Amino acid sequence: MTDKEKALYPFPRREWNDPSFTVLRSWWQGLESDKGDRAELRRATSLTAVMLNPAFHRLLRKLRQAGYGISDSRYPKLAVIAGLAARVKGETDANLATCMGTPRSAGSKAVVSELRMRRMLACDDLEELYTLLRRALALLDNHANLADLSATIWQWVPMDEKRPNDPRRQLAYDYYAAAPL
Asked: For the domain 3-178, what is the CATH code?
């Protein structure tokens, strides 16, 4: 990835060695020593509340210091990432959709219901997506793959602007590969 691409594109899909993920993980681990900001981010029910938190601005500053250009129009996506990352208690190796589709025990249903998953896949509004993913994380006992979560959110676009590598397709493929049908 060239420096120009890096400046425009943190959290690339399936490139988990990208430095932007290291910055996010470092910020996330730093929240452990800043319990007040972490608690405030966990309680945030809106993206505005996340963006008004100093921890959000620390993440933004760290990404910019690492050479990533994040425009004002991308703040809401970064707020979704920050708000959800603050809720993550532990990381998993499996991607988000696989965790959502995997049953808790043999013969049971997927952790996240198919109806909830469909609502998430149809969602174009970031505020609503934030709410849906907060609820899904709660069902996953607040465990997720930070890299996959952040890459999925960063690349989320309205349905009418679909790209060939739309993260919704990958979410659907991974969910249904893990879900009992």
From this structure: 1.10.520.40
